[in-house]
Task: structure prediction
Amino acid sequence: MIEKFNPIPREKQMTLNIIDNATCTFCGCVCDDIQLHSDDTRIHEAKKACVLGKAWFLNHTADHDYPDALIDGREATVDEAIEAAATFLHDAHMPLIYGLSNTTCEAQKEAVALADRLGGLLDSHTSL
Ligand code: SF4
Result:
């Protein structure tokens, strides 16, 4: 058997994962036939995704590349971030709960309950 020469040292070689029928949740179409190519850190290819879906997938990296939370751009614990968010929301006169396009139904349900409790507004990016 002839082994091909690979100039990248073995310890630096990455494993390529291919996932068929991945679901894109960027917009309401929720395409569920996307083929993703990724290594351990990021997605490199999103076959069958439209330009928006490709941009969404390719700009996501594994969570461990980022801190758990940020407050004013500084790294914080999740508990500190929750406390800061609660303070911001409590002090707001008309809080807007916005976004939700990349969230699960359960998270959207919680967001609606939060908007109700705060007496605030609820909207998604589809209204733009
Ligand atoms: S691939 Fe494009 S059309 Fe399909 S859900 Fe993603 S953003 Fe929407």
Q: What stands out?
A: The first strand starts at residue 17 and ends at 22. The first helix runs from residue 51 to 58.
